[in-house]
Amino acid sequence: MGDGGTGEKTEEPSPQKLRQAREKGQVAKSQDITQALGFVAVFAVLGLTLGTLGERLMEFFESTFDAATRKGDLPTVMDVTMDSIWFIVEVCAPALGAAFVMALFTNYAQVGFIFTTHPLKPDIKKINPVSGFKNLFSKKKLVEVIKQIIKFILVVWVTYGAIRDAVRDVILSARMDLISAARVGGSIIYDISVRVAALFIIIASADFFWQRHVFKKDMMMSKYDVKQEYKQSEGDPQQKAERKALAEELLLHGSQENVANADAVVTNPAHIAVAIKYDSEGGLAPMVVAKGLRKNADRIKDIAREAGVPILRNVPLAQALNKLDIDEEIPEELYEAVAEVLNFVFELKEEGKV
Prior knowledge:
The chain is mainly alpha-helical. It has helices at 15-23, 31-69, 74-111, 129-136, 139-165, 167-172, 178-219, 223-234, 237-253, 256-260, 295-307, 315-322, 335-350; strands spanning 264-267, 272-277, 287-293, 311-313. The protein has two domains: 15-230, no CATH class; 239-350, secretion proteins EscU (name from scop), CATH 3.40.1690. 68% of the residues lie in helices and 6% in strands. It has a four-stranded mixed β-sheet, sandwiched between helices. Helix 2 runs antiparallel to helix 3 (74-111), helix 2 (31-69) runs antiparallel to helix 7 and helix 5 (139-165) packs antiparallel against helix 7. The longest helix has 42 residues, at 178-219. It starts with 14 loop residues before the first helix and ends with a helix.
């Protein structure tokens, strides 16, 4: 393919490509899931600690008003300032802590544990104004803008509905004492929060499946990509064949003497040649001393002819022997077939024909 790998992406992403993308921090993840569950966590914590926060708020107001009635010297101002800081911490810490824990949990639940510094590496493309301008009008950015607009409209609609349903209570609260009016306001805020939380969860669920779809589509590969990946991971088939041939040639080069000293060479007849030898004095089983395929098989046969080693055609035996390693003893299931070959060779030697 001469398109440089720009063919139509019709192939599923390979495990290797997904692994490489994950190492770069590229995973299918929905930020809306994190935001929605974070909102629910904050809302739940505030609901559980509302009573304590109310009491702390009353204490804070009392101490602040008391300080205001006294002389505003520096120690008093410092006390009020520190009390204000600690009050803010007490109010914010539980909610922020819940949001942080929930963010960790939702991210881990979506993609597992990932640690990568790849996004931090300098990249000239990130500061390229042309690329940045193009990204502003990309399909992905457009979808995000539309999604945010829809979320804003839906939140406004839900909030309006909650306030509309509570208009009567709001009007009546004007005649109530401060505590009762605060309870009415809290009820309205609770109603709005529940509706908004439910809305966020629904949107986040849809966004979760959308992000997985977009990620899978982005990871799709063309046939050219698959071919190139295979070459990189497994090696070019032509180069692999050349390396294999070279390895066989080197192996054969060291086995020439073994072929010349072999008792027989069993062939396929053209594609396989295996040299075998039997040391009757050593009491060992016959063994393979050399083997080769195609061109190397021809070289083994040439060496055998020059050395006067008998060459016998036996297709099943040649194929079985070729599965053995050099210097490996022949297994018992091949004894009978090998014994026939050796007996024939020994008879030829006794008759002086070899």
